[in-house]
Amino acid sequence: MKDAFGFPQSLLVLGGTSEIALAVTRRLIARRTRTVWLAGRPSPGLDEAAGQLRALGAEVHTVDFDALDPAGHEDALGKVFAEGDVDMVLLAFGTLGDQARDERDPGAAVRVAQTNYTGAVSAGLVCAGALQAQGHGSLVVLSSVAGERARRANFIYGSSKAGLDAFAQGLGDALYGTGVHVMVVRPGFVRTRMTAGLPEAPLATTPEAVATAVELGLRRRSETVWVPGALRVVMSALRHLPRGVFRRLPV
């Protein structure tokens, strides 16, 4: 069960090698979390992440999970919930893709959409149903400011995150009053392996800063968290710019 500050004792991470997810997990272990399930494709990276978290004192399990295999989500994730209540699910998997390549290769573009949106819808609904059945828990969804308004430079990724963000907000409304809390996290440019080599955007942040914001959001039972917070104002302005003006911006 969660404590008075909303920190989970047990945590399921969907996207177990995500640098942001692991930063959040380390922070929660330092607070109260004792049992962690890392869900992802079997890999040395997943095993290494589990070992690092065990060294912090947590009991860590790995779970075979593939975002691109929705047919297997109910079985894979159901086994986790069958072990006992899960206080928090962190949905953190995703892929950036390669905009230039994906525009030329519809199959690659579809893979981005299936990972970031279709896979998240499937896994999110499975976990939401399990959390609702146990009567408590948090579902924290890692979205992106890229979903606020599609940019020429990454509209395939941005559109998939827009779908994810809308889904998570609607799911939060559907679960309101059930004991299940849904929190959408919207970071800007985060310095990770996924963004290595890309031009750094203004207000760039780190996985550790996102983890700090998630912790504060859990304390406050926030529904939406921006990282950094200044992006809320920036994106509000950009969202309402006339399209012709927005198109000329160097974004």
UniProtKB/TrEMBL annotation:
Against Gene3D superfamilies, the record matches this protein to: NAD(P)-binding Rossmann-like Domain
Record key words, sorted:
Oxidoreductase
InterPro entries linked to this entry: NAD(P)-bd_dom_sf, Sc_DH/Rdtase_CS, SDR_fam
Q: Which domain of life is it from?
A: Bacteria
Q: In this record, what's one Pfam family?
A: adh_short
Family listed: Belongs to the short-chain dehydrogenases/reductases (SDR) family.
Q: What is this protein called?
A: Short-chain dehydrogenase
Species name for this entry?
Answer: Streptomyces variabilis
